[in-house]
Amino acid sequence: MSVTSDRLPRAAPPYPYLLAVPLVVVLLLVTATPGHAAPTPGAGDDERRAVDLLTRAMTVAGRTAYQGVQELRMWSGGELTAATVRVRNVPGRGTFVTDTRGRRTVSAAVAAQGRTTGPQLGLLTANFRIARSGAATVAGRVADVVDARLGADRLMARYWLDRATGLMLRREAFGDDGSLARRSVFTRVAIGATSGASAPAAAPPVDLGRRVPVPDVGRLHAGGWTVPRDLGDLLTLYDVRRTEYGGSEALHLSYSDGISAVSVFEQRGHLDESHLDGWHHARVGGRTVYVRDTVPRQLMWAGPETVFTVVADAPDTAVDDAVRALPREQARPGFWTRMARGFGRIVSWCNPF
Amino acid sequence: MSHLGDRITALVDQKLDPASREQVLCHLVDCAECRAEAELERGVRRALSLLGYDRSPPPSLEARLLAVAEPQDVWPPPPDRRSPLAPSPFGWPAAASSRPPVTRTPYRAAPQRSRKRFVFAGSLSLGAATAAMAFVVGGQPAGPALSPPIDSYTVEHAAVTGTVPLTDPVTGAVAVSKVPVRP
User: Fold this and answer.
1) Distance (Å) from the C-alpha of residue B123 to the closest C-alpha of chain A?
2) How far apart are CA A303 and CA B84, in angstroms?
């Protein structure tokens, strides 16, 4: 199930990888179903066991109630970003996350819609060598440890999965230089419904827009959208959606390598820089963009007649690659660029169609 | 009976040959009207003589004035690019122009040239105005002013990427604290 190559195979348009990822996921789910043949002993045993553990972790929120305190750490640009949150999951209602002062975060509405990590799990097993490396104790609970390595021994991520329930108790992701980039860990956790605690109301559904069929992804280019197949070396496009905000259409591109996740949002227009409270300038990927200090990272900049917004749960190098792969507007367009753009707009005004 | 007309002036100016002069004088005997006009012109001539304007104009001036009085073609002839032997569009041989060749003077060519200048200047002005408008329009930002709904984007990111369990479970804009990390 593992791939030892350092890079993803480059697929030819129109994005066959979008088809391949669901197939891998289906294969994983089928092989993880109880009742199938026992894993063959030997070197592949740990790999198969690791895939089984990760597959079970995908569905834990839908069948197990839990709550606890979780610490988040992110190292980026020589700074540590830290947060402590309370997490409560109620199957059928959603995962509710509040900060330490009791304020609910915007992620509270997400969980009730079910897990969509299938493509990410497919990418994880396709890009990295997955293996169970041992056992450990996290927050007083026994956990199986699963490693994701690039090539023979380059550790890229490590997961601690609760042996009893499959819950992800701890997670660490590493940068290209081997340094720790992100870590989330339960410092306290309780499994099962807590007596006396009132069940929160079900989270409202989130409008995810409509998914763009694979054959239509190539046509987005003709419509003037920027749809890179890859962001950097590993992040691969695996989901495309069209949504609408305030009458303006937005394109949502999802990239992942299985460990990191980057969402790119495109919206036609120009950036209104008078309403950017909480944002500040930062140098990312060789250019100046607007950044907000949050988990996950949020970046924004103006492209050619398009505003790009990136939400990234990824190390610095992956975010740099994402910014580099997307266009930006020239600070001062040249004379001919400006004239060509002007003539184009005049012609568009005169075109009755 | 016809009157003398311009010959009265010629008589007063003594420009008539003897035979014509005799004829005119005979007419004046019988025509009181012409006789009165001849007397009037003689009086004018006498008055001019008293004022010293009895000299004849120089021949060159007289020639130029006569040239101006001659009829001329104001408009240029219609273009005739066809050979006289070439068939006409209607099937019969083209008739050779009966008009004598006219030497074009700057005065006669002026209307067509000014028309070309007018068209050229108009086209140039239109092109310059369009280019200026393109330059201005091209420098303006395109589309509506946007403030991306970052919170909604973050929720979508969390829902599509499935941040639980393979990535961090917290996806919103949580309150974070940042501290520098010593290398």
Assistant:
1) 17
2) 69
